[in-house]
């Protein structure tokens, strides 16, 4: 398998964490790319019409995207039933994944407003509206923190963790821990898992 990735992408990190948890990192060739919300990278677009990472290229040449699909594929390939559990636990896991992904979507839009849009056409109110969504997601994570596992995570738990890690990486000024102590306490333990430490985001 080959993975088109960017080391700063939190959605790529989700896939990397899943690869570590399912013991498949050695089976994946990591292909660096230049994913950008405006400037398309032809290397990604050749496999994914959205030209977004992560994009997984299977041995037969087929491509899988986005992180939700790739993570479930990795779990099924490895025979893992923890990441995507059965029964009622599945809906909890998938809803938590949606919560984490939603936080990330809003945070990325807020970041792109400053980094990808020219200064003369930036819309501060748009960025603030995205950060309101981030804060609402943080409040929900805080309310669920007591139920979040510290080991043996589902896809929802690790997505939330990747989202909080992205805030540390790109939005330190939000100081999210101060207003969300239970979420902070959970994350401080969860982030020490080997799969999380092995996938810490970094500039290329």
Automatic annotation (TrEMBL):
Taxonomic superkingdom: Bacteria
Stretches assigned to the GST N-terminal domain: 1-82
Any GO BP: L-phenylalanine catabolic process
Pfam entry (one): GST_C_2
Any GO MF annotation of the entry: maleylacetoacetate isomerase activity
PANTHER family with a match to the protein in the record: MALEYLACETOACETATE ISOMERASE
Name recorded for this polypeptide: Putative GST-like protein YibF
Native species: Achromobacter pestifer
Lineage, highest ranks first: Bacteria, Pseudomonadati, Pseudomonadota, Betaproteobacteria, Burkholderiales
């Amino acid at each position: 398998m080959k993975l088109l990735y960017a080391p700063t992408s939190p959605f790529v990190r989700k896939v990397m964490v899943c690869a570590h948890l399912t013991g498949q990192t050695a089976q994946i060739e990591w292909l660096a790319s230049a994913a950008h919300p405006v400037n398309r990278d032809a290397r990604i677009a050749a496999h994914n019409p959205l030209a977004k990472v992560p994009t997984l290229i299977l041995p037969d040449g087929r491509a899988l995207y986005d992180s939700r699909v790739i993570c479930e594929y990795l779990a099924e390939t490895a025979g893992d039933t923890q990441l995507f559990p059965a029964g009622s636990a599945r809906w909890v896991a998938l809803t938590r994944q949606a919560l984490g992904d939603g936080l990330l979507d809003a945070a990325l839009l807020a970041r792109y407003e400053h980094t990808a849009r020219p200064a003369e056409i930036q819309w501060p109110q748009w960025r603030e509206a995205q950060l309101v969504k981030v804060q609402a997601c943080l409040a929900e994570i805080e309310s669920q923190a007591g139920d979040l596992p510290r080991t043996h995570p589902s896809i929802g738990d690790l997505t939330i963790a990747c989202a909080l890690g992205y805030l540390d990486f790109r939005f330190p000024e939000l100081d999210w821990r101060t207003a969300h102590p239970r979420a902070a306490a959970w994350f401080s333990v969860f982030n020490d898992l080997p799969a999380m430490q092995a996938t810490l985001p970094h500039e290329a």
